[in-house]
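Today's session is about reading a structure prediction critically. Students often jump straight to the picture, but the first step is always the sequence itself: look for stretches that repeat, for charged clusters, for runs of hydrophobic residues. Only then move on to the predicted structure, which in these notes is written as discrete structure tokens rather than atom positions. Here is the chain we will use throughout the hour.
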Amino acid sequence: MVFGNGAKEITNMFAKLASIFPIIPLAGAEVKFQPVYVGDVAKGVKKIIEEEYKSQTFEFGGDEVFTLKDLVKLISNEIRKNNIVIPIPSWAARIQGSILGLMPNPMLTLDQIKTLESGDNVLTNKNKTLKNLNIHPEGIRKITPSYLWRYRSEGQYSS
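Below is the predicted structure for this chain, in token form.
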């Protein structure tokens, strides 16, 4: 899971949802992720190209592991909302993904539900990581405050 300030990336999507809806039905709530900052991915790719690493596999992940529910709660807290997150079962998530997937710019698709059903998305510790490239991942707790403030109802300087 890559995060950053892109309009369609995951933290912005959940911040938008959390700013609108007090209750968030969440598919894959217990699936674990290790979100990595897009800037760290770019640095890593650049270093791999410049230093000509060949026939090696790298895994890029952030500095913390979260469940999807924990990530949504973290984002909600950042935008000063107290959302209720309700985990939904796979069958309901498939219906949700099928319906939302028909929209012009879907927030959720059936393919995303299938990805959530496939299990955790964290480093395996079998391959090299950003740290092997001497890159220390920027954490989601450090980066997201710099752009998620715009979803706060009081704006940037709300406490």
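Discussion point for the tutorial: Residues 76 and 82 are 6 Å apart (CA to CA).
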